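Handoff note, outgoing to incoming analyst
You'll be picking up this chain. Sequence as last confirmed:
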Amino acid sequence: MKKFIIGCAILVGAASKVQSQDTTAPKIPFDGIETNWQNGSDRRDSSIFHGKYFIPTVMVDINYTHSFNRPNDNTVVGSTALARNNEVQLSQLSFGGDLNYENARARFLMQLGTRTQVVPRNDLSPYRGQYKLADVYRYLSEAYVGYHFNKWYGINVDAGLFMSYIGLNSYYQVENWDYQASFTSDNTPWFFNGVRIQLFPSKYLKIEPWIINGWQSYGKFNSMPGLGANITWNPTSSFKHRTNLHGRWAEV
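Most recent structure output, in case you need it:
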């Protein structure tokens, strides 16, 4: 049996003008394109940290959700963004950063808070085998190493644990326009393990093939790995087109 999942999203809007870098500088994908207004994108346009080899990241997400049903049990079900009703909760505390040395690259981001419980509970792949993969990866949101090749506008080959996307929604709620994603999205984990290849053949185009254990899962359900890709075309600051594709194979 073969199953394919295809998602497509288009984003159009207004954004401020950004000055391009000097033409003698290295080729940078999407240089001069304003992206922090887009759904599922980092809102920051600058950083106070400018380390040569390491750029740290700290992220705190605290929220309060009120239920007019006055539940006896304040547990929120059917969501990976919310955990408790009528309570102030620390949803996510992340810290880590990016490491770069010449062309070698790595990123790790730890996570604490209620999301370490509510996100893994929606993934059944950790129960295939003897080891509790949910506990192994519970306090990590991203952890990978890779290498950058100076070809075209860049080629990155990374391996490890990555955050996934559903449409234009990011795992990190601060990057989304809405706090809670759709029911389908929130009942699907937001991560995958495997190899990610990022190809930038032109300034405005990214082609990102995946060879992974399974889409939105820690482990591999079937006998063969999952294959997928992300294609992003962002020619201007006010237009973005993203397509996500994934296929997985199972023996019946």
